[in-house]
Amino acid sequence: MDENTCLDVLVLAETYGLVQLGQAAEEYILAHFQCIYAGETFKDVPCSLLTRLIEKDSLSVESEVTLTLSLLVSFMQSLISVCTSTPVCTTLLFCAFVESSLTFLIHQSIQTYISTLQALVLVGGDTVDDELMKRVPSQTLWFAQQFHRGPGLMKNIEWKPFATFPDPARFRHCVCLLNNKLYILGGHSDVFSLLRFDMSQGKWERLPDMIYQRNYFAAVCLEGKVFVLGGNQDDSQYLDAVEYYNPEENTWRQAHPLSTAVCGHAAAVLGGQIYISGGCDLHQCCLPFMWQYSPSRGSSPRAPMTVGAGRAGHVMLALGKGLVVAGGLQPLWMGFGDQLLCELYDSTHDSWSFVPPLPWPHLSPGATVLNGQLYVVGGSSANTARDTKWVHRYDPKEQCWENLGAMPHPYADLAACCLPLPTGLFCPIYLLSITPHS
């Protein structure tokens, strides 16, 4: 079965009730739809079958809008052929019907596209001011409006600020997305507070403070709750404490502590389980460990990371069926150095495998997953103490990193996330309406 025969196989299977063959053909079509709908045999697909295919969640296309426009072009070509061989009155009635149908299709497509559009968003961080005299924390949320490719290797990103969160400005903080609402937690300078941003209304809400002030900590969402794990206070007191926020109760509660006090670690959720990797302990030693954490039972050791003697200030995110660990620093014979090597954790086999190295240092960067690809943004270099301005993207299919361009400023100790954009985001009235609310 290939791209030229799969449609015929599906029709044959449905005609003769060959269920397994039909399922195999349908899965093949959905996975290769981008190539199939450009082929010669696609124009012979029955409308009922086409409708069923494009409604499937597993349909693999680069853009729903591009797909819809391509289908409309094919439809119009068919319309032209009908009009050349149909009496005038019948043709006019047919055109009127097609016009209303196309209007509905385009409207539905655009609404679907807008409702599912996601963007890479930068949250807070700190950078050097324009006079190069001091570091200035940020209160701005930036989103990547467009990724541009110039001649040769030249690339840049068009950034737009779309919100400012209430005081104080934050760095060394964490963000979580729960029920399409953005949570901003903790950070440097005695920040206990928790903020929530409702994208649909463009409003901020200040929620109850955390029990502990935290920076260089980790945060994840699990079972409708926001968990914060470890971290430190004032760069001195390391924490093993874990607490969680319940939006329904609007309260913080303590969970089982970690097996060791740690900061600069990373945490992620995979298969409904929380995993924690690396970090620094009370003696400022970088740890290579990996734990599986349960809020009721605590930490259980898993296979340690295999790259270097330890890692801290890194990111770990679920990508496909595994956890990718990237960036941060590693212990050297004297001091610390940048860690460019990356690895992938397989929770099923409790094992690690190689991932191509980062092309640039990212210590305490922001990171998120968007459209099945990992974005690592900003941070700094342990070797040079300089801020990193670059955005790198890892494509698991191509197994390579790509430099997409620079951030609006070289932010360090920032956070990043993937947010669903509201319908009116590009409207100036919406942008002006997003102001901090206590």
Description of the structure:
The chain is an alpha+beta fold. It has 2 domains: 109 residues, no CATH class; 316 residues, Neuraminidase. 21% of the residues lie in helices and 34% in strands. The chain contains 7 helices and 30 strands. Strands 5-4-1-30 form a 4-stranded antiparallel β-sheet, with no helix packed on it. A 4-stranded antiparallel β-sheet has the order 6-7-8-9, with no helix packed on it. A hairpin with a 2-residue loop joins strand 20 and strand 21.
So what's the overall shape? globular
Q: How would you name the CATH homologous superfamily of the largest domain?
A: Kelch-type beta propeller
CATH topology of the largest domain: Neuraminidase
Return residue spans where pLDDT drops below 50 for at least 5 consecutive residues.
106-116, 426-435
Integer average pLDDT: 85
Number of helices: 7
Question: How many separate domains make up the residues?
Answer: 2
Q: What strand order characterises the main sheet?
A: 5-4-1-30
What's the number of extended β-strand segments? 30
Structural class determined from secondary elements = alpha+beta
Protein name: BACK domain-containing protein
Organism: Mastacembelus armatus
Pfam family, one: Kelch_KLHDC2_KLHL20_DRC7
Domain BACK: 6-83
Quick tags:
globular, four-stranded antiparallel beta sheet, single chain, 21% helix, 438 residues, 7 helices
List the helices and strands and how they pair.
Layout lengths: L5 H10 L3 H13 L1 H4 L10 H8 L9 H20 L4 H29 L1 E6 L2 E3 L6 E3 L2 E10 L5 E10 L9 E5 L2 E5 L8 E5 L4 E5 L10 E5 L2 E5 L2 E2 L3 E2 L3 E5 L4 E5 L10 E5 L2 E5 L12 E5 L3 E5 L12 E5 L2 E5 L2 E3 L4 E3 L3 E5 L4 E5 L10 E5 L2 E5 L12 E6 L4 E7 L8 E6 L7 H6 L5
Antiparallel strand pairs: 1-4, 1-30, 2-3, 4-5, 6-7, 7-8, 8-9, 10-11, 11-14, 12-13, 14-15, 16-17, 17-18, 18-19, 20-21, 21-24, 22-23, 24-25, 26-27, 27-28, 28-29
Helix pairs in contact: 1-2, 5-6
Keywords: Kelch repeat
Protein name: BACK domain-containing protein
